[in-house]
Design brief:
alpha/beta, single chain, 10 helices, 270 residues
């Protein structure tokens, strides 16, 4: 993919401390890092400040394409919805403070009433607009609510808002059971970020979990076919290595990050 820049999702080198993740990502050559709200909260609770985080990001030469995530806003109503939206405001304001243009907006794990999905996503987008950040609709292959590209894109189109966008991820496309060719239905400028990973063989995609993800090129996913569709869509943003592999978490995070960027470079170079 032309014009692509490599990003590291902080989950890939969990459980390293936040500041170590930022330093390591910059040291091995990533140009951006995706952060998690829970880690930012923990850093602040431990006596740190967001100003220190932004200084570390600047020192490492890293952008923050997204912060992860806001929950509970979709398919909720009444007091539960109000509470979820209030927490989303806090999280989006925090993400904007560390320089992120996007906040990942996750769907509920269980079944949910999505009849108001477009209106609820539009509400979140308008709140984000007032805070200087845009929430991006995520689908998750293992949930019962929004688990395909088609479902996520319908919510975005129903919202009818210029800032609407989708998070794309090979693992979730395969795990959710949808057709990967549906990538073509989403214009590249409506994709907030592409997460990048592979799925191993030996088990059906429908039975895999986050912890099964492997480095790009180490699995059996149709990544080349996906890449061609991504290029055709006109996407030119960050490609973010996102793994949740416990075996990698047991290794030295600097080593894992180096392997990760080498795998990304080798995959796309070939």
């Amino acid at each position: 993919m032309s014009g692509m820049q490599y990003c590291l999702n902080a989950s890939t080198i969990r459980p390293a401390p936040l500041m170590d993740k930022i330093r390591i990502a910059g040291e091995v050559g990533f140009r951006a890092i995706e952060l998690w709200t829970d880690e930012l909260d923990a850093y602040i609770e431990g006596g740190g400040t967001l100003r220190e985080v932004t200084r570390a990001l600047s020192d490492a030469g890293l952008a923050v394409p997204t912060v992860i995530a806001v929950h509970g806003w979709l398919g909720s109503f009444g007091a539960d919805h109000t509470k979820a939206v209030d927490e989303a405001k806090r999280r989006m304001a925090q993400a904007a403070e560390v320089g992120a243009p996007r906040m990942i907006a996750s769907p509920p794990l269980g079944t949910a009433d999505l009849s108001s999905g477009g209106a609820q996503y539009r509400e979140l987008l308008e709140i984000g607009n007032s805070l200087g950040i845009s929430p991006a609709m995520e689908f998750l292959g293992f949930v019962k609510s929004v688990h395909t590209i088609e479902q996520a894109w319908k919510i975005v189109t129903d919202a009818n808002h210029p800032d609407g966008s989708v998070i794309m991820d090979p693992f979730h496309i395969l795990r959710g059971g949808g057709d990967y060719r549906s990538i073509a239905m989403v214009p590249g400028d409506k994709v907030a970020i592409w997460h990048w990973n592979d799925a191993p063989g030996g088990r059906p995609f429908s039975e895999q979990s986050d912890s099964d993800r492997v480095m790009p090129g180490d699995g059996v996913g149709p990544l080349r076919e996906m890449e061609r569709l991504i290029e055709a869509s006109g996407y030119s943003g960050y490609v973010s290595l996102e793994l949740f592999n416990p075996a990698l978490w047991e290794r030295d995070p600097l080593e894992v990050a180096r392997i990760g960027i080498d795998k990304m470079r080798a995959y796309f170079a070939s």
